[in-house]
Amino acid sequence: MRDPFQNPFPSDSARQAIWEMLVSRDIDAFLAADWSMVEDDFVEEGFIGIDGRKEVNPDKWRLAFPSLAAYREEWLRQARDFAGQSFAEDPRTAIFTTTTLEDIEIEGDTALVRKKFDGGITKADGTRDVLQWQTLYYCRRHQGRWKISGFTGYLPNPMG
């Protein structure tokens, strides 16, 4: 059984850095609702984010984040909303357990990263929030390190 807190790329520095950025740092920043923890993980110029709306049909996907500023605002809104909720379990453990990022395709200074969520988190009132979607991140080596240049996210998991 995999350790959800363990980086699965111990001997691959590029993939290790991408995993740390998109799993460990992203989760910790989200839980703290602190954008400053991840702001340097993005390439602002040309950033684009597509919201797949958990729809299989690409005709239903939307250009929800035409800029990094637009994405930052939604990220902060979601993080603050999450922070205001009460849970019956440790949220950090639940999110790490739900998250899988094991497939990173690298060609030169560009990477396609597949991050999947499959699970949920139990709220204090006994209800369960289902976390079941996936995101394709487009990363590139920028200013000497791997950064996110865009994504197609909130896709169904599994597709179809």
Protein model, in words:
By secondary structure, the chain is of the alpha+beta class. 28% of the residues lie in helices and 36% in strands. The chain is built from 3 helices and 6 strands. The chain has helices at 13-32, 68-83, 91-98; strands spanning 48-51, 62-65, 99-107, 110-122, 128-142, 145-156. The chain has a 6-stranded mixed sheet. Strand 5 and strand 6 (145-156) form a beta hairpin. Helix 1 (13-32) packs antiparallel against helix 3. The longest helix has 20 residues, at 13-32. The chain is globular, with a radius of gyration of 15 Å. The model has no long low-confidence stretch (mean pLDDT 97).
For the structure shown, list the relevant keywords:
160 residues; 3 helices; globular; six-stranded mixed beta sheet; alpha+beta; 6 strands
Q: Please tell me the overall pLDDT.
A: 97
Number of contiguous helices: 3
Q: Approximately what portion of the residues adopt beta-strand conformation? A: 35-45%
* Shape call: globular
Q: Which structural class do the helices and strands define?
A: alpha+beta
Measured between the Cα atoms of the first and last residue, the distance is 27 Å
Largest sheet: 6 strands, mixed
Topology:
Blueprint: H1 13-32, E1 48-51, E2 62-65, H2 68-83, H3 91-98, E3 99-107, E4 110-122, E5 128-142, E6 145-156
Parallel strand pairs: 1-6
Antiparallel strand pairs: 1-2, 3-4, 4-5, 5-6
Helix pairs in contact: 1-3
